[in-house]
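Posted in: Structural Biology > Protein-Ligand Complexes

Title: Requesting predicted complex, fe (ii) ion in pocket

I'd be grateful if someone could produce the 3D structure tokens for the following input. Sequence and ligand are given below.
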Amino acid sequence: MELTPNSFAMSVDAGGILEPWTSKIERRLSDMAGMYADPDAERDAIAAGDAVVYEVYQHDMPNHAGELVVCTTLLYPGKVGDEFFMTKGHYHEIRERAEVYYGLSGEGQLVLAKDDGAAEAIPMRPGTVAYVAPCWAHRTVNTGSEPFVFLAVYHGDAGHDYGTIETEGFPLLVLERDGEVAVVSRQEAQ
Ligand SMILES: [Fe+2]
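-- Reply #1 --
Done. Output follows.
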């Protein structure tokens, strides 16, 4: 495999779009059907316009542990029922691959889970640098009223395992309760 031969610069514009990006992901509510806790609210939200929940702008790199993939995510404000808009969340296919998140604008929560049942949440604001340790699934949630924008860096060979979260769900939910942000366990919410 040919490694990236030369160093280079990327930049992030005021809107959070990484330049130059080589691939873009756009996810609507219907692309993550079944992931929100309230199925009726989710169905209604999809029928009511199927909003774009988030966009990812990524500079792709060779699939090699020595490379680093850089991407920015624009996670839009919104809720499904009382659950804030969020990303699908994933483990890395190679579990032993860490990741770094850097908050650029807006605010949210980085929720983390391990297959032994451990779970935690890290508040994210502009300037927050969050270290996602190896073997932790990670999902971001926009708890504010403007786009939550962050940059992420991860190993080129990490890969994405979305299926485990799609099947098992995330142990933590981030909800609005009495006008406040509440991070609650899935069991407690049901
Ligand atoms: Fe990741």
